[in-house]
Amino acid sequence: MSLFHRLKHALVILVALVAASVASIAQTADEAFTRLAADSYSDTSRAIEILVSSAHPNAALIVEALNDGRLLAGPGGVAVKTAAGGFVDARTGQALPAAPVDMKPVRLNNAVRRAVQAALGGLGLLNPDPAKRTAAAEAVFKSRDAGLLPIVEAAIGKETNPRALAALRQAQAAILIAKPDTQPLDRFAAIEVLRERADQDALATLRALPGDATPALKDAQAKAIATIEGRLKLWAAAQNLWYGLSLGSVLLLAAIGLAITFGVMGVINMAHGEMVMLGAYTTFVVQELIRNHAPWLFDWSLAIALPAAFVVAGAVGIAIERGVIRFLYGRPLETLLATWGISLILQQAVRTAFGPTNREVGAPSFMSGAFELGGLAITYNRLWIIVFAALVFAALLAILKLTPMGLQMRAVTQNRRMASAMGIRTGRIDALTFGLGSGVAGLAGVALSQIDNVSPNLGQSYIIDSFMVVVFGGVGNLWGTVVGAMTLGVANKLLEPYAGAVLGKIALLVCIILFIQKRPRGLFALKGRAVEA
Amino acid sequence: MNAPVPGALTSSLLYLDGVSVSFDGFKAIRGLSLTIEPGEMRAIIGPNGAGKTTMMDIITGKTKPDVGTVMFGGTVDLTKLDEAAIANLGIGRKFQKPTVFDSHTIEDNILLALKSKRSVGKTLFWKTESPQQKRIDDILGIIRLADRRDRLAGSLSHGQKQWLEIGMLLAQDPKLLLVDEPAAGMTDGETAQTAVLLKEIARDHSVIVVEHDMGFIRELGVKVTVLHEGSVLAEGPLDHVSANERVVEVYLGR
Amino acid sequence: MITRFLLQNMDKRGGIFLAILLGSAVLVPLSNLLLPASSPFHVPTSTLSLWGKYLCYALLAVSLDLVWGYCGILSLGHGAFFALGGYAMGMYLMRQIGSRGVYGNPILPDFMVFLNWQELPWYWWGFSSFPFAMLMVLAVPGLLAFVFGWFAFRSRVTGVYLSIITQALTYALLLAFFRNDMGFGGNNGLTDFKDILGFNIQAQATRAALFSLTCIMLAAGFLIARGIVVSKLGKVVTAIRDAESRTRFLGYRVDRFKLFVFTVSACMAGVAGALYVPQVGIINPSEFAPANSIETVIWVAVGGRGTLVGAALGAVVVNWAKTLFTSGFMAPYWLFALGGLFVVVTLFLPKGILGTAEAIWARRRKPDSTPAAEPAPAE
To answer: pLDDT tens digits for A265-296?
Structure first.
């Protein structure tokens, strides 16, 4: 019997059922209630079947009650104890004035429980809400309960919502695959349906095909499995790519401030990671204040933390520049050491003030949760961080290209002495550049507080990666930093499935070390005589 | 292009032909051709940006030309060698800004330049023998720094550093010396002395002098090559060259 | 020739340093072993071990000074060579445990039994032999430095770029050694050593001998480093530090000189690590942490870079201060002090303690002479 025939058959049954239910609903219901009152396992199971297939108006109420042990039966009839503690007549649904005296709870054994579960699934298929119907169909798909086949087929006939219909068809296909007595033609059709579904569950279902199936069927099954596996691999690669982009944008946020200070001033700021850390702690403090004083603002906490973190980190950056780095120009290696010292001091200061343990930074509602895009699972926090990184990058690009300060910064990057000779106050530009770079690190800290532990060591874990990004991307070109960050991020995540997280990272470090040999000044280095010196 | 040179070229000590190089699209040298004969002293002049320093960079291996031939002694292709190899062939260079080793004594500066094996092992177990010591003493005498030999080079005046660097070139005993603005920042007296020193050196070495100072070049009294925008504009005795209309135009502007 | 090489132009300061070291090598162990604990001249074993550790650090500092102070290569990965030397020694000590381990396996170290390994990995072969292990103490760090330097110096990676990739090098090794699959004990590293060359490693006499040996190796390291820096090669190397491209135009192959110094320095750091491990009783991946390597730099900076005695002195002073700080109520403030030290030394004492003292002394002695111009800072 082909699927089509079966559908037609189901339709006929359904029509008959509906007709019968209208005509003799009272009669079948009578039988069901009698059986319930008998309180034997087989009678109870049968009663459930009758109630569900006759679509009794109180069927859901009764089955759920039975499932929870709240269904009472006895010579006096059948009653449901409501969750609130009251009692209703199971047949009419009307409230009873007092607790029924001659009834006791209907007992369940495993067979009854299975019947109850199946009935609940089946009842869900008839739920008025399409989303609930879809979910119920999904549950049936996973259970592959052959007993539900008629009701699934009946539901298919009535279904108008396309999503629910697709889910129902898949449920039907899943049952047909697993059921031992399904006709081969139906199985072919079912395999086709599953192949289209193409996910991990479809694979599992396909593998449920009984071992005694015909070779042609097995062939079709193997082909479908291969197709699905291929598709899944593609999705897995896409997912890794997504993770890579996400990691890349995190690296970009952490490194871009470093790229600016290194590019303009030739200074390696080893305390850059601590600026990120300060930004994260600023977020923590802002959230604490909001929690204690204005909880309704919580969803805005990150928006408030952003300018605060920029200012805090930027101010500390300017203080470092004016207080220490200014005196070390032309001595890049000493600057490296001094800023390392500063990073130790900042870490210890934060450890003293906030304690050495991780602090909890909450996520506003729009940052939590995830959604699925095809085979991709996309979390909102990662998505927002990518958007945020893009925005920060665009803003920095705009500052460098469009503002007078940006022009002066670029001039200093290319030729410090010439810029100075043209009346640019290089000292002021240095301080502002450092402030800007540090402020951006603070912004990165706000973003990182959403995906990483906020601890005094937060900055340390990003600093080497950030260096790698800057060194790889080359100095004096923000696009180089983007390419560097994204390349490293994606390469890291694509290597991980093959080499494991740690080995992948090591491989990447080695690659960069080798790359630096080839292009000592990075991917997008400035060329010419001026840079040589 | 890099094939062995024809026999006709072997008489030239240095032979540049059709050399071009560009940085990020800017052509610093375009189609430069130049020959220096053994024992010749040549002055090279040209306005800023004419490519003088880049030309020296190419000869000494700091910059690789995009196209063109650079041959030394008629047989060696300089474009294939690095700085150290070229220096060991016998091409010495004095920079525009005097670069001596500030934290070494004057004597050690000369010692480092002194012609000798440059390998790691030889330098590790080096012992200065008496002929070498005599050569160092001679050079210190020529550059008039014998009485300051134990001073750090960093403590010297600008002019003295220039001489020390010339002394280092002498110690290297190269076949060809490239001297970039030896008189820059010198007093008139020092300039005249430098000219004498260079002429002395030119007796048994080939020398290329890059200079702005016309008086200095007149004092040297040698053949002059004028560079402009990376190629040769004029060549000949100074009087002949300075009469050239185009040279005047380039130097004085239009 | 070797003696001449090592002792040429020995100055007073170097002589005093050597005398102190060789004196300590003899007298301190004697005092520890022979004098009663009540004697005011008795050196307790704990002090002995502590100072033994400081002297290992001093040797590491001398090796770093050789590349940084004299050649201008700021290596932020010297801790890697130290740790590799330490692991080579640790592997020998592990093999000496034999069947006395917790699992009693005569061949496999405990951690391998724990990981269900069936046989010794090939790179552990031979480590039961002391001479072989000592060869590896030199060869492994030396080879790594040679290969790394060969690539880096040939392509003229200099300045902060070089510093950053040396840091990446040690970071990569840190990650690698944390992995259990590497076969170096993973997170826990190598420990529970029993004996060295048949002597109980915990015994007082062994500890005294190790201290003595450390003094002698530091003296030897100092002599070799000094021999190098006062030779003509040392002059070339300093010239490279001050004006790299000028040196090249004089015909010196800068990359080879750097490579030589870097490799020698790495071997020396490896020896320091090998001496360190039996005295502290453990080697684990945290020795590869980039922070350790940077700390080594500050020892050299504090003592005075470009002065070998200063580097050793700086290592001892900073670590002595660290012990003082971290053992008392001031423990939480140690990082403030260390961080402050980085800033203060780079800002106010660029020549370090010894360099500054030297300058003051020189000025006192010859008040009339013009002060020597400051050497250009190394890049």
So the answer is: 778 889 999 999 999 999 999 999 999 988 88
Q: Is B24 on the interface with A (CB under 8 A)?
A: yes
Report CA torsion sign: B142, B145, B150, B152.
negative
Among chain B residues, the shortest Cα distance to A531 is held by B23
The answer to whether B102 and B154 are in contact (CB under 8 A) is yes
Ranges of chain A whose pLDDT falls below 70: 1-27, 55, 476, 524-533
Token pair listed for C130: 């002391």
Whether residue C11 has pLDDT greater than 70? yes
Instruction: Give the number of beta-carbon pairs within 8 Å between A and C.
Output: 132
Residue contact B54–A529, C-beta within 8 A: yes
Predicted local confidence at residue C343, as pLDDT: 92
Contact A528 B23 (CB under 8 A): yes
CB A370 within 8 A of CB A378: yes
Q: What residues of B are in contact with residue C154 (Cβ under 8 Å)?
A: none
Q: Which residues contact B17 (CB under 8 A, 6 or more apart)?
A: B33, B68, B69
Predicted confidence (pLDDT) at residue B254 exceeds the cutoff of 60: no
Contact B87 C233 (CB under 8 A): no
Asked if B138 and B110 touch (Cβ cutoff 8 Å), the reply is no
Instruction: Report pTM.
Output: 0.81
C31 with C49: CB under 8 angstroms? no
Residues of chain A with CATH 1.10.3470: 235-532
Instruction: Output the pLDDT for position A9.
Output: 62
B54 has a chain A CB within 8 A of its CB: yes
What pLDDT score was predicted for residue B4? 44
Contact assignment for C163 to A336 by CB distance below 8 Å: yes
Domain residue limits, chain B: 7-252
pLDDT at C286 over 70: yes
- Pair B41, B220: CB distance under 8 Å: yes
Q: Do B111 and C250 touch (CB under 8 A)?
A: no
Across chain B, which distance is largest between two alpha carbons, in Å?
61
> What is the overall mean pLDDT for chain C?
90
B7-252 folds as Rossmann fold (3.40.50)
DSSP secondary structure letter of residue B5: P
Q: Does B60 touch chain A (CB under 8 A)?
A: no
Return the CATH number of A235-532, one of 1.20.950, 1.10.8, 1.10.3470, 1.10.150.
1.10.3470
Answer whether A261 touches C (CB < 8 Å): no
Task: Closest CB to A502: pick one of C167, C169, C178.
Answer: C178
pLDDT digits (tens, 9 = 90+) for A134-147: 888 888 888 777 77
Q: Do C161 and A327 touch (CB under 8 A)?
A: no
